[in-house]
Amino acid sequence: MSLEQVIKEIEQSQEIKKKEILENTKNILDKMEAEKKAKIDEIRALYQEKMRAESSRITASIIDKANIEARSILRNKIEEILEGYVSAAQEILRNIRNMPEYPALLNKMIEVAKKYLGQDCIIKVDSKDKAVAPSSGITYSNIDPYGGILASSRDGKVELDLRVSSIMEEVLEKIKVKIYTRLEE
After folding, report:
1. Same domain, yes or no, for 6 and 65?
2. Confidence tier at 35 by pLDDT (50, 70, 90)
3. Same domain (yes/no): 35, 109
4. What is the pLDDT of residues 91-106, one digit of tens each?
5. Is there a smaller number of Cβ atoms within 10 Å at the N or the C end of the chain?
6. Which N-terminal residues, if any, form the signal peptide?
7. Which residue pairs, CB below 8 angstroms and at least 24 apart, start in 164-169?
8. How large is the average pLDDT for residues 61-89?
9. 36-45 burial string, b = 16+ CB within 10 Å, else e?
10. Tens-digit pLDDT profile for residues 100-142
11. 32, HSE (Cβ side, Cα atoms, 13 Å)
């Protein structure tokens, strides 16, 4: 083999090696680029998922705060409305003694007390009702500004509070409980 052929073979061999090196380098770079893109996509997907989760958490927090505020506003409005009704009821109760039905109502309260606590029960009627209450077995004192009776069994173990203001408070409390229970549903 001549020197020229040897040089030519070496050059060809070098060209082949160069092509192989370039091909390998290109393959490595392509692989690195693909890995880089995959990693970027993975990071992007992870970031998007975190953003969705954070967005959902923030949205839920905002909705919860809005619900709490709405309930508070609703409760305040209900309280305001109830106060209006209570004021109106108190105005009516201030004049209940002047109503023609009051003597019958008072006598009915006394009948109920005697029925449930016994004929010998102790009944207290407000002093202002002395004129409309039967006098036998009745004690008079300042028990309620609106009227009604307080009764107890002879031994004092059982009491019956039929004062007008107590009845009104009890009814109002029951109404509030029902309203607030419905609000929580």
Report:
1. yes
2. very high
3. no
4. 887 788 888 999 999 9
5. C
6. none
7. 164/93, 164/96, 165/93, 168/86, 168/89, 168/90, 168/93
8. 87
9. eeeeeeeeee
10. 999 999 999 999 999 999 888 999 999 888 888 776 778 888 9
11. 6
Q: What is the pLDDT of residue 51?
A: 93
Show the tokens assigned to 137: 């077995």
Which residue do the tokens 């207290």 mark? 124
Q: Are 141 and 163 in contact (CB under 8 A)?
A: no
Average pLDDT across the chain, whole number = 88
Distance CA 133, CA 142 (A): 14
Same domain, residue pair 130 and 54: no
Please give the backbone phi and psi of residue 65, each rounded to the nearest 5 degrees, phi first.
-65, -40
Q: Which domain holds residue 165?
A: 97-184
β-partners of residue 125 are 140, 149
**117: Cβ–Cβ under 8 A, 6 or more apart, which residues?**
151, 152, 153, 158, 160
CATH number of the domain within which 143 lies:
3.30.2320.30
Rounded-to-integer distance, Cα 5 and Cα 15, Å? 15
Q: Which residues contact 146 (CB under 8 A, 6 or more apart)?
A: 93, 94, 96, 97, 163, 164, 165, 168
pLDDT value at position 138? Answer: 87
Burial label for 78, CB within 10 Å (0-12, 13-18, 19+), is: middle
Q: Of 32, 65, 94, which closes a domain?
A: 94
